[in-house]
Design a protein that fits this description.
Blueprint: E1 2-6, H1 7-12, H2 17-26, E2 28-34, E3 53-59, E4 69-73, H3 78-81, E5 86-89, E6 93-96, H4 98-103, H5 107-112, H6 118-125, H7 131-137, E7 140-144, E8 147-148, H8 157-160, E9 189-191, E10 202-206, E11 216-219, E12 229-234, H9 239-251, H10 253-263, H11 277-281, H12 296-315, H13 327-349, E13 355-364, E14 368-376, E15 383-387, H14 393-397, E16 398-400, E17 405-408, E18 411-413, E19 419-425, H15 433-449
Parallel strand pairs: 2-4, 5-17, 13-15
Antiparallel strand pairs: 1-3, 2-3, 4-6, 7-12, 8-9, 10-11, 10-12, 13-14, 14-19, 16-17, 18-19
Helix pairs in contact: 10-12, 13-15
């Protein structure tokens, strides 16, 4: 059978972990069609509902652990936004072994952000102590702000002794203390956290993800605030531990944002920028005084998830990811792709001065790019060419499966045993390092199967 349900509940919600384990362990899940990226801007439902959805195909039989599950992530392109046709390509296909489906609750979000090697980077840091446990080990207390309700029965005196600050007056960089005001004495509360989270010195965290960093701020003035803000305090008012936490969030901000994008059940699924307290508490905490090593591979993935991929999900057909590569960036962008692709393969195949390198780049009517990789001992910069012939590559790359579904083929050729050629559209998303690693991994599988 095929079930169409909310993808947040099935794939992304942390509360469904046990359900997913039972489902994938006891039934034969064939494939999951994930329409999450189409939830925004009336791209999926006729009534304009903003509901992230997925279709799951299941057989009422024991699963075969010899076959993988297809996780197909649809993207919001111009054609899907105009409700003409669903478009997919090779990078939207993610094949997951059942052990991973059962035990890795983040694999679906990893795939939504591009798949490939994201999984390994996330898993590598999961062994570190979580931020929640780090706080407990250092006698820190975290809690969300108060919630007001007409039927509220709570009447905490300490809240009336301090001013309050509207949530909108806190940004990723500052707290606007000029907007502090008194709480109405008749206010009733339905939820209140301990006084320590409101008392300075403390840390204020806005449950949102900023353009350049997480909004984590050290504060030395006592005031109250509503939910969607998190306060972190200590009973012994230890300023040093609080300051070191803020320094960690500033120092490793890019990694923390990457980790939230690739694991959160909220951001990019239900909302574009809002996160949950659990997203912050679950972070693998990197202590500020320690130096954590990120490889070039890691930094490339972190940069591209924080930049291109999250923006692609949020803005779809309007994002930079689907735009042609700017002329001023073109050479360096393609060279970077070529370097990353070659480096992965050369870990295995470099031998006696012979290695893979990007030798030629051909732009085809500004719509497609062909990259040629050679395996030789030559060391020189790639040569860029322009081909303005009438060759109709679109007819070759577009494969209409049905009136509702088009597959954009990625052309991969092995014209000689020492040559690899890729022909792909001239869009940023096809030439990212993230994609270079996926291309290299597939080429390695091809070469290994061919006996190399």
């Amino acid at each position: 059978m095929c079930l169409i349900i909310k993808s947040s509940g099935l794939l992304y919600n942390s509360s469904s972990v046990n359900y997913k384990k039972l489902l994938f362990s006891n039934f034969n899940v064939i494939q999951l069609l994930d329409f999450t990226a189409l939830a925004r801007n009336k791209s999926l439902w006729d009534n304009g509902a903003d509901v992230a959805s997925a279709a799951i195909f299941i057989k009422n039989e024991k699963p075969s652990f010899k076959s993988n599950i297809l996780h197909l992530t649809f993207r919001r392109t111009k054609a899907t936004k105009e409700r003409l046709v669903f478009e997919i390509d090779d990078y939207d296909l993610h094949f997951i072994n059942r052990h991973t489906a059962i035990n890795n609750s983040f694999i679906w979000k990893n795939n939504l952000l591009g798949g490939g090697r994201i999984k390994f980077l996330v898993e590598r840091f999961n062994s570190l102590v979580s931020f929640e446990n780090y706080l407990a080990q250092n006698n820190c207390i975290a809690g969300e702000g108060y919630i007001i309700g007409t039927d509220g029965a709570l009447n905490p005196e300490y809240l009336f002794k301090m001013p309050t600050l509207p949530t909108r007056e806190i940004s990723e960089n500052k707290i606007d203390y000029s907007q502090l005001k008194e709480i109405n004495k008749k206010t009733k509360f339905v939820k209140v956290s301990p006084e320590v989270i409101f008392k300075a010195p403390n840390i204020i965290i806005w449950e949102n993800i900023g353009e350049s960093k997480l909004p984590v701020l050290y504060n030395e003035m006592s005031f109250s605030f509503k939910d969607k803000l998190i306060g972190i305090g200590t009973n012994n008012t230890d300023k040093s531990i609080l300051k070191s936490i803020v320094k960690s969030f500033n120092k490793y901000s890019d990694f923390y944002r990457f980790y939230i994008y690739t694991t959160s059940s909220q951001i990019l699924v239900n909302l574009n920028t809002a996160i949950l307290k659990t997203d912050i508490m679950r972070l693998p905490f990197l202590e500020e005084h320690e130096e954590f090593s990120f490889s070039e591979f890691d930094n490339n993935l972190i940069r591209e998830i924080n930049g291109f991929m999250q923006d692609f999900i949020r803005h779809g057909e309007k994002s930079k990811a689907v735009k042609p590569i700017l002329l001023k960036e073109f050479n360096q962008f393609i060279i970077s792709y070529g370097n990353e692709f070659s480096e992965v393969l050369n870990h295995m195949y470099e031998f006696r001065m012979k290695k893979f390198r990007l030798s030629d780049v051909v732009t085809l009517n500004n719509s497609f790019i062909a990259t040629v990789f050679k395996y030789d001992s030559i060391s020189k910069e790639p040569v860029f060419h322009s081909d303005n012939s009438e060759l109709n590559l679109k007819a070759l790359t577009d494969n209409e499966i049905s009136k509702q579904l088009t597959v954009n083929r990625i052309i991969k050729l092995y014209p000689q045993k020492d040559t690899i050629v890729f022909i792909k559209p001239n869009q940023y998303r096809y030439w990212l390092s993230l994609i270079a690693y996926r291309d290299a991994d597939k080429c390695f599988a091809d070469l290994a199967n061919a006996g190399y």
